[in-house]
């Protein structure tokens, strides 16, 4: 199946409700195992989303915080920090209805190709149970750290060769 055309746009304050909903979907399996009622779960997710959002904004102030869209519909988020030597994929997620369509794979490959063109290493963190772990492994990422909650993965920079042509 061909993946739809997607693009990134900067997040705005108007995106907060969407981003909170998306965040909840990333924790749905975990929340389903808890004996909490829905009101408590929603309060917990609200608090966790706000804490995560504030953390990202404070610790990655130079990052690009984007909504992933297709045909004007917000379908995910991509938080990326590009530096002169490294791309840090801070966070990326798609709404459940958009998962499994090749969108995440296409975006990762696009970002890796751009990193490769500039000779950048690429890093990210992922939970051990995240299905995207296999995607990252297929694309050359290796585990370089494990804090018990997240695996730290890195893909080294590819050598960039410049061919000098005679004048």
UniProtKB/TrEMBL annotation:
InterPro entries: Acyl_CoA_acyltransferase, Bact_Acetyltransf, GNAT_dom. This is GNAT family N-acetyltransferase. It comes from the Bacteria. PANTHER family: AMINOALKYLPHOSPHONATE N-ACETYLTRANSFERASE-RELATED (PTHR43877:SF2), AMINOALKYLPHOSPHONATE N-ACETYLTRANSFERASE-RELATED-RELATED (PTHR43877). The keyword Cell membrane does not apply. The keyword Metal-binding does not apply. Keywords: Acyltransferase, Transferase. It comes from Pseudomonas oryzicola. Residues 6-158 form the N-acetyltransferase domain.
């Amino acid at each position: 199946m061909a993946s739809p055309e997607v693009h990134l746009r900067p997040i705005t304050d108007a995106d907060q409700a969407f981003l909170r909903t998306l965040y909840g979907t990333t924790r749905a399996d975990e929340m389903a195992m808890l004996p909490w009622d829905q009101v408590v779960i929603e309060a917990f997710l609200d608090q966790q989303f706000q804490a995560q959002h504030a953390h990202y904004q404070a610790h990655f102030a130079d990052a690009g915080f984007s909504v992933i869209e297709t045909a004007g519909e917000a379908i995910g988020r991509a938080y990326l920090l590009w530096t002169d030597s490294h791309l840090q994929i801070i966070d990326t997620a798609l709404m459940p209805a958009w998962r499994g369509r090749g969108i995440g794979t296409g975006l990762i490959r696009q970002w890796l190709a751009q990193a490769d063109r500039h000779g950048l290493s690429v890093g990210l963190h992922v939970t051990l149970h995240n299905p995207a772990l296999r995607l990252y492994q297929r694309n050359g990422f290796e585990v370089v750290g494990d804090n018990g909650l997240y695996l730290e993965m890195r893909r080294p920079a590819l050598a960039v060769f410049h061919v000098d042509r005679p004048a």
